[in-house]
Amino acid sequence: MDIKTPAPDLQSATAMPTTLKPELLLILQSFPRVAEQISRLWGTIDLQDYLNKTIFDERGGRKGFPVPVVMALERIFENHSKLFPQKIEDPFWEGMAK
Q1: Which residues are CB-neighbours of 17 under 8 A, at least 6 positions away?
Q2: Rg of the chain over CA atoms, in angstroms?
Q3: What pTM was estimated for this model as a whole?
Q4: What is the SS3 assignment for 95?
Q5: Residue 56's closest CA among 76, 74, 68?
Q6: Which tens digit of pLDDT belongs to each residue from 74-83?
């Protein structure tokens, strides 16, 4: 029996610039829950917090993301922080957002 996982609802991603859609689709292919969260949180400070915690695992013991996915996550973070400037408290991301 083949159990199919429903595709995430990416309707809120329509507000995301089309230049970032390829990154979101790349993430969606292997990490649908992450893509759905990005879509759901787009335009909020919560997205910056989510991406920071997702890319930099604080719990340990995780395998991590493939390099292309990390690059896509970083590009989404960088563009989001430019489009929705908010206080960034992490020095690493502060350098990335400039």
Answers
A1: 79, 83
A2: 14
A3: 0.72
A4: helix
A5: 74
A6: 999 999 989 8
Query: Which residue ranges make up each domain of the chain?
Result: 17-96
CB 28 within 8 A of CB 35: yes
Q: Which residues contact 91 (CB under 8 A, 6 or more apart)?
A: none
Closest CA to 50 of 38, 62, 33: 38
Residue indicated by tokens 């910056």: 48
Q: How many CA atoms lie within 13 A of 45 on its CB side?
A: 5
Q: Residue 15 and residue 53: Cα distance in Å, rounded?
A: 23
pLDDT score recorded for residue 24: 94
- Here the tokens at position 81 are 């922080």
pLDDT digits (tens, 9 = 90+) for 33-43: 999 999 999 99
> Measuring CA to CA, how many Å separate 20 from each of 6, 55, 96?
23, 17, 16
Residue 23 tokens read as 């990154």
